[in-house]
Specification:
Layout: H1 2-21, E1 33-38, E2 43-44, E3 47-51, E4 55-60, E5 69-70, E6 85-89, E7 94-100, E8 103-113
Parallel strand pairs: 1-4, 3-8
Antiparallel strand pairs: 1-2, 4-6, 5-7, 7-8
């Protein structure tokens, strides 16, 4: 009887210890890549929603040079010649508006949801 009692206590202790180590936090979304096409007069799509850690890749499908410039200064592609691309990984949540450096009527928005991964 004494051995059975010790085994039961040990089993309860192990069960409690393993439960303390598990996390009830949902898994964070897997980072993805969204593609935005640059045409002669627009970004398509002009609104993109992604999760933290995801990347947006802008592809210049126009014959003219364009650029992708964040209104906040967070990112800037520099000149994108025809057929070239620029990618930016968004490390934090927020709404990021941007425009074409040579055509201010070309605008877009990236909405980033979620939270930054814990360093621990």
């Amino acid at each position: 009887m004494r051995v059975w009692m010790r085994m039961t206590v040990a089993l309860l202790w192990l069960t409690a210890a393993s439960a303390c180590g598990s996390s009830s936090m949902p898994a964070s979304p897997t980072p993805t890549t969204a593609t935005v096409t640059i045409t002669s007069d627009a970004f398509a799509p002009n609104a993109v929603t992604i999760s933290v850690g995801s990347t947006v890749m802008w592809m210049n499908k126009d014959s003219a040079t364009h650029s992708v410039v964040a209104d906040s200064g967070a990112f800037s592609s520099g000149a994108l010649a025809a057929g070239t691309q620029y990618s930016y990984m968004f490390p934090s949540a927020g709404t990021f508006t941007y425009h074409d450096g040579s055509n201010s009527s070309m605008v877009g928005t990236v909405t980033v949801s979620g939270s930054s991964p814990s360093p621990y």
